[in-house]
Amino acid sequence: MSWFSSRGSGPRKEQGRVQTEVVEPDVHRSLALAALCEEIRRRKLQVLDLGSAVGSNVEFLSQYGCKLFIEDLYAALASRTTGSDGELAGPGFFAEFLSLPEDTRFDVVLAWDLFDYLQRKELAAFSEQLRNLTNRGALIFALVSYHKTIPAQPYRFRIKDEQHLIYERRTGADRPSPRLAPAEVTGLLKGFRVDRSFLLKHGIQEYLLVRE
Amino acid sequence: MVWKKSDDPPTHHPEPTPAPRPMTASAPTPSPAPTSIQNEPPRRSSTNATIGPSIFIKGDLSGEEDLVIEGRVEGKVDLKQNNVTIGKNGRVRADVFGKVVIIEGEVDGNVFAREQAILRQAGAIRGNITAPRVMLEDGSRFKGSIDMEAPKETGGGSSSRHSDREANRPEATGVKATA
Fold this sequence. Notes:
The complex is a heterodimer of chains A (212) and B (179). Chain A is α/β, with parallel strands linked by helices. Chain A has one domain: Rossmann fold (3-Layer(aba) Sandwich), CATH 3.40.50. Chain A has helices at 2-5, 31-40, 55-62, 73-79, 91-97, 120-132, 182-188; strands at 26-29, 46-49, 67-70, 106-112, 134-145, 149-151, 156-161, 164-168, 174-176, 192-199, 204-211. The longest helix of chain A has 13 residues, at 120-132. Chain A is globular and about 40 Å long. With 179 residues, chain B is mainly β. Chain B is globular and about 30 Å long. In chain B, strands 7-8-10-13-11-9 form a 6-stranded parallel β-barrel. The relative contact order of chain B is 0.17. Chain B has one helix at residues 157-167; strands spanning 4-5, 49-51, 56-63, 67-69, 72-79, 84-86, 91-103, 106-108, 111-119, 124-126, 129-130, 133-136, 141-147, 175-178. Chain B is built from 1 helix and 14 strands. The A-B interface holds A 1, 3-4, 7, 44, 53-55, 58-59, 62, 65, 67-72 and B 91, 93, 106, 108, 119, 124, 126, 133-138, 140-149. Strand 3 of chain A pairs antiparallel with strand 13 (141-147) of chain B.
């Protein structure tokens, strides 16, 4: 059971100064989440959560009766063995990562802030895999930072309610932000288009991307 | 027998009991009010059947009382009417059927709980959970899917029928292992 031995929570490429103080989680309004919940409540959906397993999110989503798949992308990236430093995850990695039953198709993908933690080529390869695993009209919920730096590890997002997300930092260290522009996001995520997008006051752009 | 019990053997009941309950005859204190599943998930009782840390079972487990697994099990754990706890030392490579299923150890297989599945902080599941209520504690590891629809009588197959048959027998208490 090798899966059990790798918790995969280590920093992928820690950059910047490590701060030791405890950072309180922030609560931010999420307009895209509110829009997403409107979609989810209409029918029973298959939801893919690419973040780590968070009990309160499972509880929140349970009210919609959806079937939830949890596949921790960042942990998988962190625990993979790379031949040389800086090697990118390719289509093979993502195909193995999302090796699900053939008929599995998702209606909603919770990508959280993970796009900020993929190189551009990785994001393009991952979107190809997502395209194969989503139904037409499926929604991707993603958050992209416009700050110069982002935490060295993705936030742990906790759904507070339909309109608010709690951002929990896992580390005090920072790394440079890729600062993906909207055109880049749509350019890299081929087969998806921006359905709705919200620029929030705290420098985060929220996206609901829809599978064409 | 490849499991051990942490308490005396069950007393023989002259009449079939509608639902198996912990053996409280030897309990040191009077039985408190039943634990509310809604508010407080059942904790391990001293009257559970226990598969100890040094025990390895390959095959199917079925029975009519609550079970704690601290050892290794490969096959199937089928206690639909009872609570199943995979303890911190438990390593299960099997589908697990129970009323309330609590995982503190590691499960490589699917979990079917009639009432609730609880993945504790130290626990890990690689497989799918089907239960009307699911609780994941922070820090737990989970890879798979969660289906929180009200469960049908899932996955029982022949074992399910076997289990029902056994439940009607007054002497059918305890946990059975079949290789």
